[in-house]
């Protein structure tokens, strides 16, 4: 669900940015006016990224990697631990065990907590507290990512679950409340199981279509209910005496449940049975669940009336529209929306997965990733979710930025392995990160600083791509996830040359 919240938040912020970018798209012929429309900060980020990708060295325009203090290295190690599949599966098993025990104790007749339940709950609390402590320390930075980062709502949910676990439950009422709150732990599985995330996010993404169909159904229920109350209320006060009862009756009829007795009562009259004989509302009383007597017949059926023509037209048209056409359309729209939303959400999750891996490898802050994403959205003014080498060269030319087309062509091919292929947001982030790494290396070489052997550029004088095996494995993993859906992980190894 955190991914759902984050995607909705991003969509809202990007809608604002898209409105700005739409204005900017018509003003590239007057580049001097760009800063007036997008703001100074965003304009500086735009110029910085285009200068960086131009392949031409610019002094004073580099964003160096932050220094790695010992505690920071330990923090990065813990972050790798919590992102490890083994750790995630271990936590998932603990959550399942906690859910099973919560289900077993919920069926217990006693409201008091037994000894084994206390011991198991203490063990779960220790595990969840350790996990929460590791997460809190691993995301302890200037941005306070634990509370304000991409997974803030899930982190706050985990914190609330752990805090609730420490609430004393001495009284029976408090024990029941705490047990119910502890059941929320099972919801954490949504966060850890990616296919389940796609289902939830798909439902959220398809809410708009579902709302409009539901709104149409409500309008139809209201119109038919008003008509039925006006015509049938004297003959059938139980089903159509009030608007509320009429809506409930029609809602039941729309699923073809017990529609025939309602039709017969209003077709023949409330004092006629199925065989066409007058029975003083005996059949009517059995339908509405009341015991018949001579006194009650005049109360439940005071004004029997036949509405044969209207009843046939009304019920058959309503059943045809609601029970067959509308319900089928409702299901079809849900299935179509789910399929379309699943593809969109799966693509967004895949892009976000690559962005997270790139940000982790290059130690990019949340602000740096956000700035690069904003620049990408501005460059992608057509909102196709992809930019090309030609588009970048065009923007650089408009803003009078000197370019090295060969450098840009090589980096494009390096990132995705295919020339002239459009870039998505994750590709653009990797492209920027590689260019930053190359700029930093070139600056140190110009200053005759050879102490840092871990630095790496993009290409040597012979045009050969130079990188550590870590970086090459990252790029290969990026290609696999983005183009083939594979999840290749990279391992640390010494630098080499291709």
Automatic annotation (TrEMBL):
It is a multi-pass membrane protein. Residues 442-464 are annotated as: Disordered. Keywords: Membrane, Transmembrane, Transmembrane helix. It is found in: Membrane. GO terms for cellular component: voltage-gated sodium channel complex. The keyword Membrane applies. SUPFAM superfamilies: Voltage-gated potassium channels. Gene3D superfamilies: 1.10.287.70, Voltage-gated potassium channels. Chain C. This is Voltage-dependent channel, four helix bundle domain. Its main location: membrane.
């Amino acid at each position: 669900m955190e991914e759902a919240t984050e995607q909705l938040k991003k969509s809202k912020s990007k809608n604002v940015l898209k409105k700005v970018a739409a204005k900017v798209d018509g003003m590239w012929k007057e580049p001097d006016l760009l800063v007036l429309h997008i703001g100074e900060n965003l304009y500086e980020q735009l110029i910085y990224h285009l200068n960086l990708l131009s392949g031409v060295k610019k002094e004073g325009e580099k964003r160096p990697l932050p220094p790695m203090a010992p505690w920071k290295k330990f923090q990065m190690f813990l972050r790798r631990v919590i992102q490890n599949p083994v750790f995630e599966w271990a936590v998932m098993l603990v959550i399942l065990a906690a859910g099973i025990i919560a289900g077993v104790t919920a069926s217990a007749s006693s409201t008091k907590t037994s000894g084994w339940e206390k011991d198991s709950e203490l063990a779960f609390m220790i595990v969840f507290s350790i996990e929460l402590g590791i997460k809190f320390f691993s995301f302890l930075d200037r941005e306070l990512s634990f509370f304000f980062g991409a997974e803030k709502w899930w982190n706050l949910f985990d914190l609330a679950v752990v805090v609730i676990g420490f609430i004393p439950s001495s009284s029976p009422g408090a024990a029941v409340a705490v047990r119910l709150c502890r059941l929320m732990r099972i919801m954490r599985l949504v966060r850890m199981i990616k296919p389940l995330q796609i289902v939830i996010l798909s439902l959220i993404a398809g809410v708009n279509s579902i709302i409009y169909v539901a709104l149409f159904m409500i309008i139809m229920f209201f119109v038919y209910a008003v008509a039925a109350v006006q015509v049938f209320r004297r003959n059938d006060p139980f089903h159509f005496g009030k608007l509320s009862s009429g809506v409930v009756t029609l809602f039941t009829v729309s699923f073809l449940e017990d529609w025939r007795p309602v039709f017969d009562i209003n077709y023949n009259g409330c004092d006629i049975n199925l065989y066409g004989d007058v029975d003083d509302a005996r059949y009517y009383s059995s339908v509405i669940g009341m015991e018949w007597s001579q006194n009650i017949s005049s109360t439940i059926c005071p004004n029997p009336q036949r509405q044969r023509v209207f009843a046939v037209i009304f019920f058959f048209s309503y059943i045809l529209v609601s029970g067959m056409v509308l319900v089928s359309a409702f299901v079809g729209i849900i299935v179509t929306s789910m399929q379309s939303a699943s593809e969109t959400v799966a693509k967004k999750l895949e892009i976000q997965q690559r962005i997270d891996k790139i940000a982790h490898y290059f130690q990019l802050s949340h602000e740096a990733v956000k700035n690069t994403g904003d620049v990408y959205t501005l460059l992608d003014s057509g909102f196709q979710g992809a930019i090309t080498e030609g588009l970048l060269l065009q923007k650089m030319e408009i803003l009078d930025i000197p370019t090295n087309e060969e450098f840009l062509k090589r980096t494009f091919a390096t990132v995705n392995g295919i020339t002239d292929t459009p870039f998505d947001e994750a590709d653009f982030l990797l492209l920027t990160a590689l260019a930053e790494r190359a700029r930093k290396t070139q600056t140190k070489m110009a200053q005759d600083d050879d102490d840092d052997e871990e630095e790496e550029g993009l290409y040597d004088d012979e045009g050969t791509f130079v990188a550590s095996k870590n970086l090459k494995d990252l790029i290969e993993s990026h290609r696999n996830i983005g183009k083939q859906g594979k999840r290749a992980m990279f391992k640390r190894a010494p630098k080499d040359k291709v």
